[in-house]
Fold each of these.
Amino acid sequence: MAPTGQTITVPTPSDKEIAANPREYALFRQLDHSHNGQIPLKEATEYVKKYGSASAELTAGEVPFEQFAKALHKKGSQDSKGNTLGYAAQDSGGHLSPFVFDRRSLKNDDVCIQITHCGICHSDLHQIKNEWGASNYPMVPGHEIVGIVTAVGSRVNKFKVGDRAGVGCMVDSCNDCHQCKTEGEEQFCSKSVQTYNMKNFDGTPTHGGYSTHIVVVDRFVLHLPENLPMDASAPLLCAGITTYSPLMHYGLNKAGMKIGVVGLGGLGHMAVKIGKAMGLEVTVFSTSEKKRDEALSVLKADHFVVSKDEKQMQVSLGTTFVAHAGMVHCSIF
């Protein structure tokens, strides 16, 4: 067991070292994030055993990045044919299996992100099971992606290697239509490219975040603030923006305003948390009494109504906390 009080320092790796060890660099960046170069030896040792080699030994003091990367390396993480390892659905059976494929080479406006976390959206389940009738296989799902930037194109100036970054449900658009150039609402571009289950403009299939890394046009990459945990941030890129957007669009973002959240699932809990952070008075409508404690005690909603209970609904209609309230419908379709 490593002695307490001792630390290790890992010098900043070169671009060449990062390119050769993108997974290990992303892991190192996460570990070092809160330590500013002075990583407790005990924590580093436990981290290496969890994500790398169980037999690797670290000693206090300066550890060259190449040595630290070797300790973090796992056979199979980069050793397959093809530059990306993912989990893909091969048919509508609902199962995912390892799948090796190639991401495109870095273009001038591209950002390469080593993926550290990816949320699971219910739409991923719909897609892999072809429940919407437009699935293409093999399919690597995932559009709540966060990770560490490991390379940038020559024209990219808003991101640099080492940045914490995120990618949501879009990875490209025409960048020429009114929605793209004037409105800044690329999601309405008729040629927008979704993160997976679509074609890039060059005809190659898009694959999502259930994979080791992703290459994306810089316009569709987001900065992840340093004070946000990476694992908890991923759902903000779909469920979070899906509920935040209507609150902002319809002006339901002023302290003291009232909103009703219909459904306390993946979207619903985001709507409650965002609403409370804005200072709103939040009422949750749910079909299940079982969610009352979660809504009121955990998420700190102000009111809870069981929508199947006619008496509760009638009472709520006559109260000021529902009258003139905005409604955010968050039930799964």
Amino acid sequence: MGELSELVLHFSRGLVARKAAEQGGVISGDNPVTYNASDPFRLWVVQLVIILAMTQALALLFGRIRQPRVISEVIAGIFLGPSVMGRIPHFQSRIFPDAGNAGLSLTSTIGLVIFLFLVGLEIDTKAVKRHFLAASTISIAGLVVPLGLGAALGVAIYKEFINPDVNFGYFLLFTAVAVGITAFPVLCRILTELKLLETTVGSVTLAAGVGNDVVGWILLALTVALVNAASGLTALYVLLASAGYIIFLCYPIRWAYGWLARWTGSLERGAPTTGMMTLTLVLVLASAFFTDIIGIHAIF
């Protein structure tokens, strides 16, 4: 089962099993940052407030040197992780316990899915088609070079730190993919904040980034399949399932969606009806669910 599916199941079980808290709450001595699997809401709010406060503080600082906000978010993640604040006694176990991160991960995944959908709405598809060759060339170059460097790095790491019992080829493939894969959501955030998303440069860059990431995640699926002693054909099945779903969306779903938009009058009014907006959101979440369960990632 995919990562998003597991997060949804874990978080929903906690909500279903939620018990009534003691009437007095903190007045009765209840600690709001103590993780409770049957009532994860309070810790989730604490985690969210701390993350937003840290991100905002760093954004004000880095904004003075004209850095995109996403850079502040990345650095905030480092500060709140084991490297900095995680060294404070009990901070990690109390505020960000492993068992209590399911709700936070689910929130971030859903936010990313919706954000990337909105990014897709703003992409100039005509510009992508006009510059398809350039986008393909950039995507290939942006994947082959990092993969080669990652493989070279993997050789040095294997010789120095890895147990010889670990398969050399599998480790090399994993290291190459880990280095070569693109942080696609970060790329989208940078282009959005620099107002490059609707330009030709932004459209070509995003198209190249999508191709790079899809190939990277398929290679990662191949790596996991090989490590788990599964068939190497798993990656091929993932690729075929992805291609089939894209065709399914581009033809029957697209035709049906267009017919519904005309039938509901959304095209004539220039604004979608409530039903069309609901259907669009369902399609976005269904697509995220499908890409997650076939082993790519929900954000694709």
